[in-house]
Design goal:
With 185 residues, the protein is α+β, with helices and mostly antiparallel strands. It is built from 7 helices and 4 strands; from the N terminus they run ααααβααβββα. Strands 2-1-3-4 form a 4-stranded mixed sheet, with helices on one face. The N and C termini lie far apart (61 Å). It binds FE2/S2 (inorganic) cluster. FE2/S2 (inorganic) cluster binds next to helix 5.
């Protein structure tokens, strides 16, 4: 099923290991109405929906690629680009917008070097713009994972990003935890 290249013309490769979704395709092979669960499981495998995987799904299920893309782009649960380990959701509802969300966004984009809707190169963070998250009294607000950060300004936004970056580096083992504790010689 993974043999050969089906994207000879203008389509690019995502580099996904297509063998990983063969069990998924086999499990749902006899069920033509199961495109959504197939996409959900594919996304679980890769963390997003790589282009190669979408082509593989279309070929395996003998349906037009446009149909697969149509479903994948219709539902907000599906992501066509790699996502970061942490998603930074910046609220752009009215209250947050009026109280400085655009400026906070500018700072975060500048600090992380990725635009809204993009993921940082190290795949640590994805920046998203969202509608009102329901805590307008704290505007401007951003949500990182389960945590809500409110009353943001440039300084606070930079501090939060610096902390998040440090946490990501620590998690990857890039900052030895003992480094800060070492006594000067
Ligand atoms: S507008 Fe941002 S929380 Fe409501």
């Amino acid at each position: 099923m993974t043999e050969g290249c089906r994207c000879a013309d203008t389509q690019e490769h995502s580099g996904a290991d297509l063998a990983l979704i063969e069990p998924v395709l086999e499990r749902y092979a006899g069920d033509p109405g199961s495109l959504i669960p197939v996409l959900q499981e594919t996304q679980r495998v890769y963390g997003y929906l790589p282009k190669d995987a979408l082509r593989e799904i279309a070929a395996a299920r003998k349906i037009p690629l446009a149909k697969v893309y149509g479903v994948a782009t219709f539902y907000s649960q599906f992501h066509l680009r790699p996502r970061g380990e942490k998603v930074i959701r910046i609220c752009h509802g009215t209250a947050c917008h009026v109280r400085g969300a655009p400026e906070v966004t500018r700072v975060i984009v500048e600090e992380l070097g990725a635009k809204v809707g993009e993921t940082t190169e190290d795949r640590a963070f994805t920046i998203e713009s969202v509608a009102c998250v329901g805590c307008c009294g704290l505007a401007p607000v951003m949500i990182v994972g389960e945590q809500t950060h409110g009353q943001l300004d440039n300084v606070k936004a930079r501090t939060i990003v610096a902390t998040l970056r440090e946490e990501a580096e620590l998690a990857r083992g890039e900052i030895p935890p003992s480094a800060e504790e070492e006594e000067p010689a």
